[in-house]
Amino acid sequence: MVAISALLAAAAAPLLASAAPSQCYNWKNVKVGGGGGFIPGIVFNPTEKGLAYARTDIGGAYRLNADDTWTPLNDNVGSPDWNRWGVDAIATDPVDTNRVYLAVGMYTISWDPNNGAIMRSTDKGNTWSETVLPFKVGGNMPGRGIGERLTIDPHSNNILYFGARSGNGLWKSTDYGVTWAKVSSFTNVGTFKPNATDPNEYMQDPIGLAWITFDENSGGSKTVATPRIFVGVADLGNSIFVSNNAGSTWAALAGQPTGYIPHKGVFSAAENVLYITYSNGGGPYDGTLGSVWKYNLTSSAWTNITPPSPSDSTYYGFGGFAIDKQKPGTIMVAALNSWWPDGIIWRSTNSGATWTSIWEWAGYPTRNKYYKIDASAAPWVYDPTATDPKDVGWMMEALVIDPFDSNHWLYGTGATILGSRDLLKWDSSPRNVTLKIMADGIEETAIQDLLSPPQGPGILLSGMYDAGGFLHRNLDVPQTHTDQFHIYYTGTTDIDYAGNKPLNLVRVGTQLQELSSSNDGGVSWNKIYAANNAQHGTVALSADGDIIIWSPNNGQPIRSQYTNAFTTISALPANAAIAADRRNNNLFYGASTNQFYVSTNGALAWSATATLTGATKAYKIVPNPTASGDVWVSTDNGLFRSTDSGSSFTKIGGVTVGGHFDLGAPKTTGAYWSIAGFFTVDGVAGIYRSDDAGVNWVRINDNYGFGAADANKIAVDYKVYGRIFVGTNGRGIFYGNPSCSSPPPTSSTTSARTSSSTTAVTTTRTTTPVTTSSTTAVRTSTTTSSTTAVRTSTTTPVVTTTRTTTASTTVATTTRTTTTSAGGALQNQWGQCGGIGWTGPTACVSPYTCQVGNPYYSQCL
Ligand SMILES: *[C@@H]1O[C@H](CO)[C@@H](O)[C@H](O)[C@H]1NC(C)=O
Ligand SMILES: *[C@@H]1O[C@H](CO)[C@@H](O)[C@H](O)[C@H]1NC(C)=O
Ligand SMILES: *[C@@H]1O[C@H](CO)[C@@H](O)[C@H](O)[C@H]1NC(C)=O
Question: Where is the CBM1 domain (predicted)?
Fold first, then answer.
């Protein structure tokens, strides 16, 4: 196969309207498995068997497949519309089951510059159009697990209602979600704020309307607007409102309980009953009191059906609620957060008169557990050795039973989707239902760093929020607990390796003093106890591995040698970008705004050297992996290179904005490293790769958006030419190879925004989703921390992604030839055994052989 030559591509560039050419890439997820984040909502379509959707708070929506895998539906979302990955509600049409709608937007506060939108699809989420709302939507705000706040009239499916946050009230569409107007007669917009005295605006915005539920039994005709509609509102006073005239007038439902927030309002048509779960918090983390009620429409009676607490009293609110449509009167409810000893789910087969629960105390501290665990789809999620395993889960707002299959249930937790296809075992003896991870295909982790190491067992190392990160030995099978960076069960924000001793690694994390080292390529880690009070940020390890510098996000950069106490580097500004030369143990680099800094004595003394002309933000410094003194730095004014150890820089032509980037395996033997990253080249933002040190560029992101570009991370594979890793903030890790063997997602975005008759704006965006491959494997443990990312990194994306089409084929191949050498020391497994500039052993201890990875690197494998 003839590979596209960058030179040829450049020659063709003028014909392509001066934009850099594109190259076809085949992108798919690096499999972590099991989601890895909060699942706030799951909905089954009531009329099409097997059709279901799940929504995430930071990574878009998914559709369920018959084999229990999930297909992502929003992979073309990029900058500047990154907030579309926050899904605050989802609605599946009971009449035309091909129609599905999303209410999207990340935050209703200043963190999100964009208004929200209602996205609509007539092909089950394969392609979307959207209407921009005149206010923000909060898919990652408090109360995101309540709902659903977007609902379709079951009799007249052209009618939709959306319950807004922030006091914006109730909105209605009568044309399948194209145009929207405020329902002025609905005045109870919800006064509840998660914490009005908290100085953080995140806690102060009213959660607003909670859910909209139709009484499908009401109305003589089943083809005109359903007259009776219930609306739940986040308010401690009256919180349930009803209209009996299709939304013209509204009144508080008489006799209702007050004092709590109604999280779910589920109508059981066969029983003519509305079930409601309440909590004293908005969720998803909080809630210490709550109740469960039913409102019987036949008798107008309210009945408290709160299941009995396993302890003396309730210490949790209630979240998810499910009815079994095949068995009227069979219902289930989840404690939103029973943090200890575990989450609780109850089931009743008599409309809540009596309940059984998924576990019970059998004389403290013993518990009877009426479940067994199947974590085969994501073994890392369960740690069988954990002292406090949360088998059942936490943050349980989404709980559903398949309307066509009483055995099939799903529920969302802070970490994954659990459920099974044997739920009726709950009602038999012994009661023993399976809690199976049912989130295959969902990748929701928030990636903070990626590293393709020169050496060691890992193809990739990832740092992420919540789950910590992983040593990735295989890109396509779910992760194990063993390969999780779980020393502290928190987030990893940066990882670095020692250039001359690449098995030596350091990483830093989200917690104070979270610094640890590995000398086996990331298999095992040891805490370094000298870490001051630093946290978060980036870390650099000297070429020989003895000096660590850390640029935390809560103070000045600091320096330590031989893991002695850290000292402040006062010469470097706070939050400076930092890097270590890969060959010279004393050479370090720093950059901030337009200033580059160099230390030649092991990061003790620093001098301001060159100016990065026109930059106001230095983003990332990447040294040449094998040559001392050759260093690249990306800025908001493009990409710069120095070949004199940072004394002077040359700006790379054509690149006007540089984000996260990396250097990796060259295209051919002897060629310069391949460079790839988030860049704006010739005025077009995207992911670009250059195989000739920045002379020519090809755009490689196809129609993938990867969310907010400035939150994303890039690693270029050290050994496999052309293989690029992209870490996202909420859609996990992707890897791409230059190949058109499977067609790229063809996504045509018609961004003609036409004003509708109301204040909302319509946009048409067409997307073809990408099917995530389904791979199955084995079992797990739950981390004790709640798994949800609050976006911290951006409000203003620096890189804008646009989409065009591509047509060229390149096949990436790794040549691994075996070499032998005589005499001298033998290298150990994973050790380097050859490459340009290598002077160490060139033969391996038995049974390993020295295999060429690239011209610069051979390894004992
Ligand atoms: C609300 O925020 C204030 C100020 O941060 C804090 O002191 C208080 O504990 C918070 N209340 C709750 C219920 O979390
Ligand atoms: C609702 O009330 C009617 C009339 O009292 C009663 O027959 C029915 O059993 C009640 N349904 C439920 C689910 O409580
Ligand atoms: C449930 O089934 C598993 C596996 O068959 C078994 O180990 C466990 O003891 C059973 N639990 C109960 C309560 O029967």
Answer: 825-861
